Amino acid sequence: MAIEIKDIEHLAGLARIAVSDSEKEVLKHDLEEILAYVSEIKEVAESADSRLGAAEMGTPEASELRNVMRADEGAHEPGVFTESILAAAPQREGNRILVKKIL
Amino acid sequence: MTLNIKQLTIKEAHELLISKKMSVLELCEAVLREAEGSRNLNAYLEIFDDVRAQAEGTQKMIDNGTATPLTGIPFAMKDNILIKGKIASASSKMLENYVATYDAGVTKKLRDAGAVFIGRTNMDEFAMGGSTENSAFGVTKNPHDKTRVPGGSSGGSAAVMAAGAALGALGSDTGGSIRQPAAFCGVVGLKPTYGSVSRSGLMAMASSLDQIGPFAKTVKDAEIIFNVIKGHDPMDSTSVPLELSQRDERKPRVIGVPVDFVHAKGVDPRVLENFEQSLEKLKVAGYEIRDISLPSLAHGLSVYYILMPAEVSSNLARFDGVRYGYHADGANLLEDYTHSRGEGFGREVRRRILLGTYVLSSGYYDAYYGRANAVREMLKNDLAKAFEGVDVIATPTTPTPAFKIGEKSSDPLQMYLADIFTVPVNIAGVPAISVPSGFVEEEGSKLPLGIQFIAPHFCEDALFAVGQDLERAQKES
Predict the structure, then answer these.
(1) B78 annotated active-site
(2) In this predicted model, what pLDDT tens digit does every residue of B163-214 receive, in sequence order?
(3) In chain B, how many domains are there?
(4) ipTM for the whole complex
(5) Could you say which of A8, A16, A88 has the minimum Cβ distance to residue B341?
(6) Has residue B338 been placed in a domain?
(7) d(Cα B119, Cα B88) in Å, to the nearest integer?
(8) Of B327, B407, B376, B382, whose CA–CA distance to B206 is shortest?
(9) How far apart are the first and last CA of chain B?
(10) Which domain CATH number covers B100?
(11) Would A85 be classed as within a structural domain?
(12) In A, which residues are within 8 Å of B377 by CB distance?
C-alpha cells in the first residue's frame, strides 16, 4: 500500500488541515501501516458477498433503517438563541459572524 | 460518622441519604475531598464551583419525598457530554473555551433525577484513543499504578471512580472507550445497546458506533444509572422507541466463549488464566460454559478502522474556526480553515481525519468503505446466529493489563490492537459490560483485569444478571 507524500498533501487539502513537512513523513508511514492492516477486509468481503448477496452490500443497518419525521411546528421565538450562539464565534460584527471575504 | 467513601456504592449512599443519616452536602464534601486528594491523577479537568448549590437543591428532593435512586449522588461527566453553561472541551485545544449552550439528553435525565455534577473528566481528544495520552491537557494516571495509563478514551471517568472521587460517572464508548478503561481501573463499565441511550449533546465521533454509558463500582450501580439514562429521545434520530426495543426477559444460563478469538495472538497468558478462573466461578454458580466459533469477530478491528475514521472525517468537518472553537488567522478564508484545524486538532485526530478522507475518496470508497460495511453485516449476522445457541458471550475485556504511559503512544497500530475484544460489540450495536475479574502483579503493583459479557440487542438485563452472579461468586471464593 504505497502512499506518496503528494497523496498526504492531497488528503490534507481535502480535509482542510495544514500539515507540517515533518508530519507528512510520519503520516505517510502511519497510513501505510494502518491501510496494510485493514486491507485484509478485501478477501473477507468477497466471502461476505457470496453469503449475503449483492443486495445487502454497502447497506449498513439496513434492517434497522427507518424514517424519523416530525411535524413542522413548535418553532422557537426568533432571536432567543442568537446571543449564546454568537458568543461562541471567534469573530463577530453585530449580530453576524465575521469571516474573510471570499470574492 | 466515619465513612469509607472509596467503597461506598450508590445503593448504600441512597439509603444513608433517605434515612437522613447523611446529608447530600456531607456526601458531596466527602467526595470533593477525594477529588482534591487525587488531583495528581489529572482525572478531573475541572471541579465545578456550584457543587454546594446543587447539593442544597437536591437535598430538597429528599426532604419533600420526591427523591429518586440518584438524588444527591455525586457524578463525574466525560468532557464530551454537554452540561449547559459549563465548558465542554472534549480534551481538545479546538474547544478549550467552548461553553455548552444546552444540556445533553443524559445530562437532563440525571439532573431531573437529582444527581449532583461534581466535574468533567479528562479523555483522549474527541474520544480518539485508548489511554488518555491524546488529551490536549495532559495524560491521566492510573490510580492503581501512576506510571500506567487508565485506558481510554473515557480514562478520566474510570480513574475518578477508582479513586473514590465520584459515585457514578458517564463515558462514551465507540470501540471500547468505556469498557477498556473500566477494566484497566478495576471498575464496572457498561456500553448499552446502540439506540437505547440518547446521543443528543454527545460530541459525535463515529455516529453509527458511539454510545453513552455508565461507570460504577458495582454491577447493581451500573444498572441503576442505566435505568435512569435510557429511553427514547426525539432529539436523537437513532434513539430507539420503546415499542421497537423488544427484549428477552429470560434469566441467562448458557455462556458462549469464542475460543479461537479469545486465544488470538498477543493476548497476555495471565489475562487468559484470569479469564478461565472467572469462567470456572460462573460454572460453579450454575452456568453452562459452551465453546463457540465466531471467526468473523477477528475482522472487527479492520472494519472498525475503516468505518470509524470515515465517520470521524465527516463529523469533525464542522470545526472550521468560524462559528465556534479555536481560530487561527491566515491570509485568506481557506488558510483560516487549514490553520485553525491544523493547530486546533491534535496528532491522533489529524491522523484519523486523513485516514477517513482516504477511505472515502473517489476510487477507494468501494474497496474500503463499501467492503467494511459488507463485513459489518456479516459480523452482525454471525453474532445473531450465535445468540440462538447461547444467552451471553464472554471474552476478556482487554488483551493485556494497563500499559505504561508512553509505551504505545508512538505506534498507532499497537494502540489500536488493544481494542480487539471490545470493537466487534460496537460494530454489531449490541450491549456489553466489563466487570472486574481480579488482578495481576507487575513491578509491585496490583493491576486490575476485566471480563466482558456481550448480550443480544436490548438484553442489558442478562448482563446485569451474569455480572452480579460473578460478583457474588468472587465474594464467596
Answers:
(1) yes
(2) 999 999 999 999 999 999 999 999 999 999 999 999 999 999 999 999 999 9
(3) 1
(4) 0.91
(5) A16
(6) no
(7) 11
(8) B376
(9) 31
(10) 3.90.1300.10
(11) no
(12) 48, 52, 56, 59-60, 62
